[in-house]
Structure formats: C-alpha cells, structure tokens
Amino acid sequence: xxxxIASSLKYENSTLSVLDQYLLPHQQVWHECHTVETMxxxxxxLKVRGAPLIGLGASLLIAYLAEQGMTRDALATAINELEAxxxxxxxxxxxxxxxxxxxxxxxxxxxxxxxAEQLFIEDIELxxxxxxxxxxxxxxxxxxxxxxxxxxxxxxxxxxxxxxxxKAQQVHGNVHVWVDETRPLLQGGRLxxxxxxxxxxxxxxxxDNMAASLMAAGKVDKIVVGADRIAANGDFANKVGTYxxxxxxxxxxxxxxVVAPVTTLDLKTAQGSDIExxxxxxxxxxxxxxxxxxxxxxxxxxxxxxxxFDVTPAxxxxxxxxxxxxxNQSQVENGVLLKLK
Length: 341
Ligand code: MRU
Prior knowledge:
GO terms for molecular function: S-methyl-5-thioribose-1-phosphate isomerase activity. This protein is an alpha/beta fold. The chain contains eleven helices and 17 strands.
C-alpha cells in the first residue's frame, strides 16, 4: 500500500499508526496498530474517533492485514468485528461494505489495498468540496458555534464542519468560533480548541449549557455541525447535544447547518428514529479522564444515562452541506438526498 498521511492517521513504510485522540492536546502519542484487537480497542476507547476516521482506520488495517497474508476467511471475520465496534457512524459500515466487495475479487489483496487507498484519498477530496461549498454560507465577521470535533483529526482531509470554518477563514477572514466543550468526552474542549489554535483561528470555549444565553444575546450568527449518519428524510445523528443546539437555533432564528460527505448518507434508514444510538460507559459521565489524569465527582455508582449521539429532525435544519451541494428544507422534503447515491 502507498504511504497515506493524515493529521491523526498514517500508513508509512508499511506501518499503520494513529494519534491518540484521548490524550490530546497535552500529550501527542502515536500508537502503531498491527492487529484487529488493537484497532477495536482504539476505536471503542475513542483514541480513533470521528465518523470518517473510524472507517478509514479500520480500512487501512484490513489492507495492511491483507498484505501481510491474512486469509480470506480471517479478513471477512476481521471486517465484521471492526464493523461492530461502534453502531451509529455509518461511514464505518460504508467502508466495510466496500472492503467486502473487494474481498470477493480473485485478486482480493490488490483489490482491498486499492479500495482502502481510494477511500482515504476520496475522503480528502470530499472534505475539500464540502469546505468550499460551506464557506460560501459564511461571512467575514461571523461568530460561528460548533459542537464536538469535526476537523482534520476526524477525517483524512481538513474536516467536515470545522473544514468549512477553516476554509471560511482562508477565504473571508475575520471568523470567530464559539466552541462547545462537548460533555462528556470533551471533544470540543480538547480537540477542536487544539485544531483552531493550530490553525490560528480565534475561538472561545464555552460549556455546552452556555449556548442558549449566547444566542439570546445575539452573539451567534451561524451554527455548523457534523453528522454520523443522515437518514433518507434528512434527520441526522451527531454528537449528543447537537439536537439541543438545533432547538435553540430554531427558537432564536439562527441558521443551523449540518456538514457531511455523501458517505455519511444512509438511504436505507428512512428516518432518524431508526438510527441506532450508541450507549456508552457510565464512568464517562461520573467524572473525566485523559492526559490530565482522572476525576470522579459523583457517588461511586451514580445512575447514568450516556447516549453518545442524539438525532436532530430535518425540520430544524437550515441547510445540508454535502460535497455535492448545499440543500435546503424543501429540496430535502422533495427527496433530493435519495438521488445522491
Ligand atoms: O464519538 P465521536 O467523537 O466519534 O463523535 C464524533 C462526532 O459526533 C462528529 O461530529 C461526527 O463524527 C462528524 S466528524 C467529521
């Protein structure tokens, strides 16, 4: 396989490595990954995270194992096991489906390698196209609110929603970002803040529960978020807390955009309520952990509800920014998404 380098995932000289997103920003630790068990752990623990990146990490590992001589049967099992690591982000299923097709070919090793390379390179291009389209919606001077991390760390390219912000800053300048810290795992506070600093884009970090008062004060011009799965009717799943923002945006009349590649569209899922939502370990809500150590602040066995994602109904979305174009409510109601794949 050729060398493939992204911000948090690289295949270089026959070695697959990932940047540990759980330890960022204070520790920048790369892990080598040679086995299915390791990749499963990396994905489940969110060291490898973000809808596109999960699919690409799993794909590069399958290609590496194919090149190492893993049998067809073992590769099929590995694909199934990796696909089961996280249930909500459909990009993983999209990638694993493409690899299953490749596995059927006579020269399956070459076919798997070519597929993995293509998925990686395609993601870079998809990010670029979304960013270009999305940047046209942003004006110089805008204060943009975003949730979770949707940047270069989460993709092979410049990101989805954060890629739009990055491009808008390049094209128009004078953009300021309100960064939701994104409880419970702090992808905003840890990762989006890290990326914006690296890109020198002005930002201000807020706790998730501060967004309402900011909007009421007229300090948010636009909201851009990513997606883990978009259903055929335009409802979409994204990091828990996204739905809150959509309701608030509707109340305050603030444009609310979702940014995602066509690989995040799941036309087999009719509506958002059909999307499986990943439930995670209660410990994540009982405290925090990361490069700064661990803290538990609740009673030891406090009862916890911890869905990783929530579903935003299409009726709250101003625009769907895909690599193929920006679509509005009436286009989506008339089934435009159904024609995209
Ligand atoms: O649990 P995570 O950190 O993998 O969740 C990530 C998100 O919800 C992102 O918003 C989504 O994957 C889009 S990333 C380009």
